[in-house]
Amino acid sequence: MEKIATPAASKKLSLREKYTQMTRGLGWETTYQPMDKVFDQAKFEGIKIHDWDKWEDPFRLTMDAYWKYQTEKERKLYAIIDAFQQTNGHLNISDGRYVNTLKLFLTGISPEEYSAHRLFAMLGRQFPGVGARVACQMQSIDELRHAQTQVHTISQYNKYFNGMHDFRHMHDRVWYLSVPKSYFEDAMTAGPFEAITAISFGFEYVLTNLIFMPFMSAAAYNGDMATVTFGFSAQSDEARHMTLGIECIKFMLEQDPDNVPIVQRWIDKWFWRGYRVLTLVSMMLDYMVPKKVMSWKEAWDIYFVQNGGSLFNDLGRYGIRMPKYWEQTVSCADRLSSEAWNTFYNYAAAANFNTWCPSEENMDWMSEKYPGTFDKYYRPRFEYYREQEKLGKRFYNTTLPMLCQCCQIPLVFSEPDDATKTCYRESDYNGDKYHFCSDGCKDIFDYEPEKYVQSWLPVHQIYQGNCFKPGTDPTVEGFDPLAAVLEYYNFGPGDNMDYVGSPDEANWLKWKGLAKEDAPKKAA
Ligand code: FE
Ligand code: ZN
After folding, report:
1. Does an H or E element contain 74, and which?
2. How many helices (H) does the chain have, and how many strands (E)?
3. pTM
4. Span from the CA of 216 to the centroid of ligand 1 (angstroms)
5. Which ligand is nearest to the CA of 455?
6. Ligand 2 centre and the CA of 305: distance in Å?
7. 434 and 426 in contact (C-beta within 8 Å)?
């Protein structure tokens, strides 16, 4: 049979045409069911979109190109992970303490990559515009890859250190992990436009540098080349995600002036919620990494005050201003990490990583970085703890704290204008009282109380007896509620408590030939 040249076969499509064919060309107006019923979440938030074709696709990436790029990145990453494992790369880190930041990352951040994967899959289904749907579909796949590469990379550490054996289980149960968990679940249970504002803009565009930069440069400074590699592998995806964040904001703002106040309220809300999650990053930078990269205050200054400042300056032309309460994040920047680390030191029994009293060297560094606050408020406290430790009276807080109904962090923050006073707010709703850590969290609750009264607050749940394994009998004589809760968390020996005296420390000293019992052997 003679072959007939069709126009499609004879003419090679340009990249742009190909992209249009493979995105816009795939969408259609439904006829069996009305569009509003098929995309039933598109309107209830009040966002008005008049023309989805105005959506700009900054990357114009087709699926075949996407898979080609990603495959190449995977090949490189897994070659490095293999080499890291074969050469026992975990022995090259600065100190065994460093691994605690990875425990925080694996249980607090990697499961949120997976949450983001689910969230973007839902957005890919819900947006009536094809361009936005394709971008969300790609990001959904990226996020699944991020969760996987992080788990695979950190698995090498799991073979040698405690606290990482059951990260999914812990993520859904351990008290402080409800902070990042509830953040993503709040976004997932919002409408599609709020969800994309929360994650693509609030998280990826405004705050992501404050997670990835500290963790990745800390990894590099502390000899963890495996983590640096998955960070780099995610970075080119991240560039796409950030662009999606800013594009979706500009698109909503350009489509209708009525969208502006709605978007502003979401920016206020998600900035505050994101900032609260970053509390964990602040203590990681200032207290947890053995070789310091930069202080929390320096990071906040560069990545939010300066970069964020010029971003919001730029968005001013749409009528968007800086997020509400941003000034408080600046006035509290020299207290945040110390308030957080003090909390974890107090509740060391119930965290899935090891804590410690800061060394003299760490405290001197803090005095230098925080001249206005550290020596005045925090050094005396840590010195007192150290004294007590020496006397064999290590202080543990055995009373569970009150949690913020919104961000779920214990009420451990100080008043923005007074470092000596606990910040405490409350609201009444349907005859009950609800408690908050800040004005920002109270505002979020007051706008949508029917959502946040449902929060699963770990402390309340423990006191109600909901955090014991099935079959636990709390009425038996000598019942130890803390031990029962740790069993429910699937904690094993060494997962929690102090680094000094932990199995992780003992192993590390042995591997590095620093153990005391090794000394005579070496001398002989
Ligand atoms: Fe990601
Ligand atoms: Zn709060």
Report:
1. helix 63-86
2. 26, 4
3. 0.94
4. 14
5. 2
6. 21
7. yes
C-alpha atoms less than 13 angstroms from C-alpha of 407 in its C-beta half-sphere: 26
Closest ligand to 435 CA? 2
CA–centroid distance, residue 371 to ligand 1 (Å): 36
pLDDT 10s digits, 116-141: 999 999 999 999 998 899 899 999 99
Q: State the ligand closest to the CA atom of 111.
A: 1
CA angle 342, 346, 352 (to 5 degrees): 100
Q: Which ligand has its closest atom nearest to the C-alpha of 244?
A: 1
The pLDDT mean for the chain works out to: 92
- Per-residue pLDDT of 179-190, as tens digits, reads 999 999 999 999
Length of the chain: 524
**Phi, psi dihedrals of residue 433, rounded to the nearest 5°:** -105, 140
Query: Residue 522 — pLDDT band, cuts 50, 70, 90?
Result: very low
Hey, what are 241's tokens?
A: 């995600």
- Looking at the DSSP bridge assignments, the partners of residue 422 are 414
Distance 375 CA to ligand 1 centre (A): 38
For residue 435, the tally of other CB atoms under 10 A from its CB is 18
- How would DSSP label each residue in 91-118? GGSS-GGGHHHHHHHHHHTHHHHHHHHH
Half-sphere exposure (Cβ direction) of 72: Cα atoms closer than 13 Å: 7
